[in-house]
Design goal:
Shape of chain A: rod-shaped
Number of helices of chain B: 10
Oligomer: heterodimer
Largest sheet of chain B: 4 strands, antiparallel
Number of strands of chain B: 12
Order of helices and strands of chain A: HEEEEEEEEHHHHEHHEHH
Helix content of chain B: 40-55%
Number of helices of chain A: 9
Structural class of chain A: alpha+beta
Chain lengths: ~290, ~350
């Protein structure tokens, strides 16, 4: 019967040990509570013991936690309505204070959300909408983070940061934004097309100008060439005909007669004329009279 | 994930233990006085120690916890730690590249090709730009676990933290730039800004995650205004087309003008040459005649004259009037009527029909 007793005693010991011993993981922290009174805070991981039955253990998260709030409507300095949704990261730094003031995570989140929303509302109300979406975003987040951090300290919470996640316009305002965007695009499209026409006209005008210049230049040089030809010809004629100007006048006149006197010309001749003088007196020849 | 093993580690090995003790008790009762008892106990002890063996895969890292506290980080290979309940291990894959999406969710096959491979989520994808426009953005993030200890114990639900931080970073980057910049030239810049912001947030939150890549898949105007944006693209095309057409006109007109000019100049050259050559011919002809004329001036003169007259006169209408006899009335015209009537006094009319 001795082994049975040993085994029984052993089992009791194991049970008591299981009640007394506990481990705290890397991800958590604990608080030993004795009949409702916090006795001990454990923040380092490891194996710990407590009185069985009389004391019990409350565990808290040690990792960084997230509160992702629902978006709500705020009003900016220039009276625009915006939908803002913020997210905050925080850690339980002092489990005792945390346990006393907010008790658990869910309640802590709700409290934080209230604090941040109030602070954010105040901050957004002092900024214009455009500043809000552009350069002031970071500043606002920094201010809200700082103030929230102060307030949250009283809950044993350390706030890492508060960030504005979404910052949107309410649906009815979106429609007018879209209308404005459309108008803006139409303006840009018009400008591009007008620029195209501008460039095209410039190019065409330049082409026309170039053509005129080319043709005029060609006309100039062709007239020069013609003039040179005429001059050359004139000098050749002058040289040749100058040898006997009177004979040239004679032959050239004969040539001219052939051209200018045509079939329908009526000629009135005097019988005394040189051509017909033999008709009346065959004796006197022009040579003789000359 | 971290939660899962925590619960399992706390409850199921405990049940096993109770089960084991129950078994032990029954076995002892059955084999009250045998050497086998000790054999079985020895085997169980061996099994217990053997439960401390674990394998770390090639791209993995092992973390050993002694009573919940990290005592070792182990490399790939076979390892042994003190058996439960003293030590436990967690294996984390640090080589695998994971991905997260902002603005859309991939559908079915994990396609990374971008738009169309998933379903957009308007609340996430639509955001305000710095010039108060609204743009639709899809972002895909590739990340790895860089520090397994931080990943496990630094932040609660690191993946969801990554997702919301990515949204914060992306919206802040897009909000700091104009819509045109974000959609065109600044795309890479915005992408880079978002990546940098995301990494710094992840570091602050002790997630142990490392962003290897953040890529903007789509930066598009929202459906409501897409037509207007497309029209701008068309207008750009129109501008280029108009310019091309004008250049075409230029390339058509100028060479033609050059051709025409060349023609004019050539014609002038031809005229010039022709004038000179002809004048030389004319001069030569004259000089040759002149040479003969010098030899017998009077005869040649008469001959030339008469030859010309012969050539000109035959077909012409001719009247011969004696200036002495009919001096007073002679040049009264029209002569044709006179010749028709044959009434003219003292006139010798001779008409030759054609």
């Amino acid at each position: 019967m001795v082994p049975r007793l040993v085994i029984g005693l052993g089992l009791v010991l194991v049970f008591v040990a299981a009640q007394a011993a506990f481990t705290i993981g890397e991800w958590e922290q604990g608080m030993v509570v004795q009949f409702g009174n916090p006795k001990r805070i454990i923040q380092e991981p490891g194996l710990y013991f407590k009185l069985p039955v009389a004391q019990n253990l409350v565990r808290f998260e040690k990792r960084v936690l997230t509160t992702d709030a629902h978006e709500s409507e705020y009003i900016t300095l220039d009276k625009k309505r915006v939908l803002v949704d913020h997210v905050s990261r925080w850690r339980i730094e002092y489990p005792l204070q945390f346990y006393r003031s907010v008790r658990d995570r869910i309640r802590a989140m709700a409290r934080l959300d209230d604090i941040i929303s109030a602070r954010l509302r105040q901050e957004i109300a002092t900024h214009n909408f455009l500043d809000l979406i552009r350069e002031k975003r970071e500043d606002i987040m920094a201010i809200v983070t700082k103030d929230t951090r102060e307030t949250a300290k009283t809950f044993g919470i350390e706030v890492a940061d508060v960030r504005i996640k979404r910052l949107d316009l309410p649906e009815e305002v979106q429609a007018s934004v879209f209308a404005r965007m459309r108008a803006e695009r139409e303006r840009i499209a018009k400008r591009y097309r007008a620029e195209g026409e501008e460039q095209a006209q410039q190019l065409r005008a330049a082409a026309d100008r170039e053509r005129e210049v080319i043709l005029a230049t060609a006309y100039e040089s062709s007239e020069k060439l013609k003039g040179a030809g005429d001059a050359k010809a004139t000098s050749i004629y002058a040289n040749a005909f100058g040898k006997d100007a009177e004979f040239y006048a004679f032959t050239r006149r004969l040539q001219a007669y052939e051209k200018i006197l045509s079939n329908d010309t009526t000629l009135v001749l005097n019988p005394d004329s040189e051509l017909l003088n033999y008709l009346q007196s065959p004796g006197s020849s022009p040579q003789a009279s000359e | 994930m971290a939660d899962g093993w925590q619960n399992q580690g706390g409850s199921s090995p405990g049940d096993e233990l109770l089960q084991g003790l129950e078994d032990l008790k029954r076995t002892i009762q059955r084999l009250t006085k045998g050497a086998g008892v000790w054999l079985i106990i020895a085997a169980l002890v061996l099994l217990w120690i053997g439960s401390g063996f674990y394998v770390v895969g090639p791209s993995e890292r092992g973390i050993v916890l002694r009573f919940g506290a990290v005592v070792a980080e182990t490399d790939p290979g076979l390892h042994l730690h003190l058996p439960w309940p003293v030590e436990r291990h967690v294996v984390v894959d640090i080589g695998r590249v994971r991905s997260a999406q902002v603005g859309y969710r991939p559908s079915g096959v994990p396609g990374r090709s971008g738009r169309g491979s998933g379903r957009t989520i308007p609340q996430e994808a639509l955001m305000l730009t710095g010039d108060e426009n609204i743009v639709e953005v899809n972002l895909v993030i590739q990340y790895q676990i860089q520090d397994p200890v931080k990943y496990l114990f630094g932040a609660f639900e690191p993946e969801s933290m990554l997702h919301s931080s990515a949204e914060v970073a992306l919206r802040s980057a897009v909000g700091g730039n104009t819509i045109d910049y974000t959609m065109t030239d600044g795309r890479l810049e915005v992408q880079e800004q978002a990546k940098r912001a995301l990494q710094s947030l992840l570091d602050i939150y002790q997630t142990g995650l490392f962003v290897t890549e953040a890529r903007l898949l789509a930066v598009d105007p929202p459906n409501e205004v897409r037509d207007a944006f497309n029209d701008v693209v068309r207008a750009l095309e129109d501008r280029d087309r108009l310019r091309q057409e004008a250049e075409g006109y230029q390339e058509d007109v100028v060479p033609k003008a050059r051709g025409e000019a060349a023609q004019m100049v050539q014609q002038a050259e031809a005229y010039k040459a022709q004038r000179v050559i002809r004048s030389q011919g004319d001069a030569e002809r004259f000089l040759q005649i002149l040479a003969e004329y010098e030899k017998a001036k009077s005869v040649t003169r008469d001959r030339l004259y008469l030859e010309s007259v012969e050539r000109i006169m035959p077909t012409m209408e001719k009247f011969i009037l004696d200036s002495q006899n009919g001096g007073g009335v002679v040049p009264l015209l029209p002569l044709k009527e006179l010749s028709a009537g044959e009434t003219a006094a003292g006139a010798v009319a001779s008409q030759e029909g054609r």
